[in-house]
Amino acid sequence: MVKLVVGLGNPGKEYAKTRHNVGWMVLDKVANQFEEPFSKEKFKGVIAEIQSPHGKVILLKPLTYMNRSGESVAEAVKFYKLNPEEILVISDDLDMPVGKVRMRKEGKHGGHRGLMSIEEKLGSSRFPRIKIGIGRPERKEMVANYVLQPFSKEQLPIIEMAIDEATRWVTEIIDGKPIEAKTCSF
After folding, report:
1. 3-state DSSP of 145-173
2. Is 146 labelled as part of a ligand binding site?
3. Which of 12, 144, 151, 184 is 20 to 30 A removed from 94 (C-alpha atoms)?
4. Which residues take part in binding tRNA (predicted)?
5. Does 65 belong to an annotated binding site?
6. β-pairing, 87-93 with 45-52?
7. In 6-54, which residue ranges form alpha helices assigned H by DSSP?
């Protein structure tokens, strides 16, 4: 049973609508659906507490910036005495096309520095994850700038559908549906 849902992103208005912040975008929608605001600063992040049919579920948006997300997650895991399997992490993925959404029970970081930080701090990669494809820039040296830019006008409706689908999956998991491997594309 998932007890902590983490959306990866970067704090600050300048990052709010960027590709790297799709995890935060999903959590914002989930919090809105449950009418629970992100009202507390805790665990080097902001949290919203949701009452599910199976107990309390914490939504966490780390404020440590992407590369140090594991610090925030590790504090929450320690406080709530959670196993990695009780954490669901939502992140962007450069290696999937824009609009592809994938859920797995566990996996590898694939070079994603936020996931890498979490795996390092937890000492495990055995946590469920939802990845949302943001595509890759044409040239490799542009990756750092690319992830910190907003989606193009053409990509925006596609990514909004992907975020809505990921939000639906998270809501179902909070309501008690077991995590299963699945993929969809828009």
Report:
1. HHHCCECCCCCHHHHHHHHHHHHHHHHHH
2. no
3. 12
4. 15, 65, 67
5. yes
6. unpaired
7. 22-33
Per-residue pLDDT of the chain (186 residues; tens, 9 = 90+): 899 999 999 999 999 999 999 999 999 999 999 999 999 999 999 999 999 988 999 999 999 999 999 999 999 999 999 999 999 999 999 999 999 999 999 998 888 999 999 999 999 999 999 999 999 988 777 888 999 999 999 999 999 999 999 999 999 999 999 999 999 999
CB-CB contact of 105 with 179 (8 Å): yes
Owner of token pair 């699945």: 182
Distance CA 100, CA 123 (A): 28
Task: Give the residue numbers marked as catalytic.
Answer: 20
Domain range 4-184, CATH architecture:
3-Layer(aba) Sandwich (3.40)
21 a known binding residue?
no
* pTM greater than 0.85 (yes/no): yes
User: Helix count (H) and strand count (E) of the chain?
Assistant: 5, 8
